[in-house]
Amino acid sequence: MGDLDIALRYAATRSAADIAAVPLRDAGEALSLRWLDSQVVRAERRADKGCLLEYPTRRKLLQVEWFASPEAELGWRTYEYQYLLLEHVRQEDEAAAERARKLDPKAKVVAPKPVSATSLIVLLSGPEGDTSTSGRYPISAPEEEFAGARWVVDRVYQRTSRELAERAGAFWLVFSPLAADATAATVTEAVRAAKERASSVEHFSALASTMTALAGFAPERDVFLEVIMGQLSENLLRNNPLFERFAREGRNEGRNEGLKEGLQEGLVAGTLTALHHSLILVLQGRGLHVTKVQRARIEATDDQATLEMWLRVAGTAATTGEVLRHGPATAKAARKSR
Q1: DSSP assignment of 177-213, as one string?
Q2: What whole-number distance in Å separates Cα of residue 26 and Cα of residue 170?
């Protein structure tokens, strides 16, 4: 999911316990947990990181993945990523056993604790009538004992602002712009709560930039973007790459009235950037191919009404070309596409 996936992954690495509490709330308190930087991540596949939690007698591998909307291959993807992450754990165990044998060839190597896998699938949008909270992908025959992948579904777009706020930690507050009852007031409160719960300024900066990216998915995106950025300090805006880009775009056009005005002007650019990202994410989330030329045209379009029209059409169009045939392209887009 491009920039949004990167933002979510970065914020998630600081919030392992918050995330694990959703699908594993009945598993008890873990002795330890850590993120696996596995071959899946290094290959830049669709999977997010896997979190390995250790309990007194077993281990649990939690694979986390974000989807802009439900996909037909969700089951197969989940099974594939669970397998790859479990294979990574197995290789770690074998390497640890080999190191122990080299240190003391006569010592008895203790067998590793058994490990099982589950997945947390976070859906950012989808049919309102679909309320399923779990799923599975069988590789066994119907008459045989189940074998395959299981997962928990978290439809954050169906959660209320209060439900998100009541979850432990700060991470789930980033989804407040997508909440079923999201308003300017609830998003304002979410930003305030995230600042209070964040473990550091850097942590809050990661949460705020992720919340900003997610606001691009919301119907009230303009209002929410203004609410979020209006609560951020000049220092945070100055030192966060995402917000600094917005401000720089405002200042580079000859506006020298200072940072505040530059940020205000940059907010306009930020709204357009959010629309650009949202449109591309929706297209890619539905499995539609976006060529370099099409991406350049989208990113060059500076007319908000056109971008919003494309975003609406993107939900049902068969191809990216079909989307871009709707509505007038701006003069800027026309010039850059030549």
Answers
A1: GGSTT--HHHHHHHHHHHHHH-SSHHHHHHHHHHHHH
A2: 20
Express each pLDDT in 241-299 by its tens digit: 655 554 444 444 443 344 444 444 544 555 677 678 778 877 876 778 889 899 889 98
The pTM (predicted TM-score) of the whole model is 0.67
- Give the H or E element holding residue 221: helix 221-230
Angle, helices 259-285/304-314, rounded to nearest 10 degrees: 20
Task: Give the number of other Cβ atoms within 10 Å of residue 132's Cβ.
Answer: 9
- The torsion angle over the Cα atoms of residues 282, 286, 292 and 296, rounded to 10 degrees, is -20
Can you name the residues that pair with 67 across neighbouring β-strands?
A: 123
Alpha carbons 195 and 191: distance in angstroms, whole number: 6
Nearest to 295 by CA among 331, 337, 260: 337
Give residue limits of the domains in the chain. 2-158, 173-336
What φ, ψ does residue 32 adopt, rounded to 5°? -160, 160
